[in-house]
Amino acid sequence: MGVEPACPVLLLFLAGIIIWVVEAEVHYYDFVLAEKNFTRLCKTKSMLVVNGQFPGPTIYVHKGDTVFVNVHNHGDYGLTIHWHGVKQPRNPWSDGSAYITQCPIEPGHNFTYEVVFSEEEGTLWWHANSDWTRNTVHGAIVIYPPHGFSYPFPTPAGEQILILGTWFTYDVNKVIKEILRTGKDVPISDAYIINGQPGDFCACSKEMAYRWQVDYGKTYLIRLVNALMNEEFFFAIAGHDLIVVGIDGSYLKPFTTSYVMLSNGQTMDVLVKTNRSPGRYYMAGRQYYTDNLFFTGYDKTNASAILEYRGKYDRLSSPFFPEKLPSYTDYDSATQFRKRLKSLASKEHPIDVPRNVTTQMYITASMDKIVHNFSAYMDYTLLSSLNNISWVNPSTDVLQAYYRNLSGFYTLDFPDEPPYYFDFVADLRDDSTHPLKGTKVKVLEYGEEVEIVFQSTNLLNASDEHSMYIHGHKFYVLGEGYGNFNSTRDTETYNLVDPPYLSTASLPVKGWLTIRFKANNPAGVWAMHCQEGRHLIWGMNTVLIVKNGSNPETSIRTPPPNMPSCASYPSIHKPLEVSAE
């Protein structure tokens, strides 16, 4: 990694408002993707990792910095790298969304991403973005305040990154490749892990649990990353309260809790005070299960790591386990935790909830199936959908097709509402809405203020929580609830004062979620999807295209010269007319 030093911070005072001007730093990383053997749960397997590490290397920056990451693919799979929660203003070329903003980096090739940290502050993460390659290809991003500025809370004595992950005892990418061919259900994980280790409650793992040593009487910052493939996750530390101060690279009004719940793909910053009797305490987590309760074969692993005080005490005794860690199906604990998330307002971090909504969308999120009638039998293919459209990846990425005015790769008719209205949360065990497969996108004018109500459906009696994520934008979560959304009753409950500012949010099982955002990332082709791997590969995805604004500062940048090639690029094309950089 190379670093160019920053220039001094300049403070300007204008009308009582502090404005800071920083010559930000530029960092350089090399990510080398290759197979390496790892042993967990008594079994050894080869898996794709970055720089021989699992989890992968951490990227450290300050707000306003730029990072160039040269990704060398020495593995067996074509893939991209996505910078989860990073806005990437005017730069969708480096978003890293497979078949949306680029085609995969094929084995034996490389590509350099330019990652711009414009408004994020806190913890985010990066991960592979092709099928399930992110299961082993991921790592944390730490974004410190701008030089010369501090946290909106007392500076901690130290910090610890804890990445929550999923472990399979085999190469899950080969299994997923077959599932994509047959349309059947995805495998259940063999364990959950913290910083790459299952912990004391799993086979062949007791001596390998991740350990974090702390001093008595200090306050530490923990940076949590939910990198699981499909699950939301409860987390707690035995005997210690957690003070939640940030989420998805934004600050929150601090609150104290005995546990946290992270949506799939979400990141969280929490403080912990080491004020208990010196000893060893489990940091433990388990999935929050919201699928059909008749199925009991889900992964019930308690992933664990150990918080270990320095000093003299009986180290032979077993660590304490968190008594207040919620159970796997504790809907109330998950809901009550989310209700406590409120944005922290300050001069440096103002709250700006859109009030002049120009586009409203009502989007159903569904599990469904397509039935195939063969001569001797019937079979089915599992699908997921948004507004009854199940996404199909094009052969050329949508961004190139849009930028170069190519036709035939997508259509502009993603609907603002579902084609059918019914009791979405009723027992619909055998019902299907016969979803359409397609590559349909929604086009937004630059600067539009957008409100989306997501509605979970119970088709096939398969309602589940969905972790809804939008690339290139963050959004305010105005409210959520159980049942069918009621535009008269439920809008009265909206939080328009200090709603959390997120990039990933939970759509409750058999419920609804309302978000608002300003479409201000121009000429971007930005994916909007459920983050959970099983729903994403089945098609719970669409794309938002934000048009250029009226000047160069509100227009897309020109593409880099070395974008990964797509086999279907025509030799003659007409570029989209855009403003120069």
TrEMBL record:
Record's catalysed reaction(s): 4 hydroquinone + O2 = 4 benzosemiquinone + 2 H2O
GO biological process: lignin catabolic process
Signal sequence bounds: 1-24
GO MF terms held by the record: copper ion binding; hydroquinone:oxygen oxidoreductase activity
UniProt cofactor note: Binds 4 Cu cations per monomer.
Protein's UniProt keywords contain Acyltransferase: no
Keyword flag Nucleus: no
Source taxon at top rank: Eukaryota
Any GO CC annotation of this UniProt entry: apoplast
Pfam entry (one): Cu-oxidase
Enzyme class: oxidoreductase
Compartmental location: Secreted, Extracellular space, Apoplast
Cofactor: Cu cation
Boundaries of every Plastocyanin-like domain copy: 35-146, 160-311, 418-549
Enzyme Commission code: 1.10.3.2
Keywords from the named record: Apoplast, Copper, Glycoprotein, Lignin degradation, Metal-binding, Oxidoreductase, Repeat, Secreted, Signal
Family membership: Belongs to the multicopper oxidase family.
Function: Lignin degradation and detoxification of lignin-derived products.
PANTHER family: LACCASE, MULTI-COPPER OXIDASE
Protein name: Laccase
Organism in which the protein naturally occurs: Gossypium lobatum
